[in-house]
Amino acid sequence: MAKDDADKAVGTSLAQRGLGLLEQAWASQWALRLACAVLFLDMAMMLRVGRGLWQWSAGDMELLRDVGWLSLVVVAFSLSVAIVLPVVLFVLRPLAIYIWYGLVSLLPWLFRPDVRLYQRGIGYVPAQALRDAALREKDPFLFRLYEEYEQTKEAGRVFLVLMIFWFFI
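-> structure tokens emitted (169 positions)
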């Protein structure tokens, strides 16, 4: 009697797990993970058999009996996704940022925003116009506003340079 109840509990929980996995398959994150796993298995089969998953035949069922090969594929996929990929991205992201800012600084005319798309908002005053007005009127408040703006801009530049430098250390 207790065994029947345990079987029902296991059967119910197994069905619930199956439905839970089916619901997760609709989420984009899980769908992408599944696609990555299938593509990795396809590459592994191409290395082992010379054919991918699209050319799966009845003779390839012997591959499923090869536990060593299957476990090696699972471990290789897990290590590549959990360790190798984050390390590669950790190295490539700062490199891409460094290259992008290098291109922007070397070729500023290519990356200049279109003036027609970025019109000045109401109340916008360019920093140089603010400085000129502060010097012309000898107004310490306007000059202090200009200095605060320039200090903030310089702090942003220093922060950017330090972040790029920190990634390459």
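The first helix runs from residue 2 to 25.
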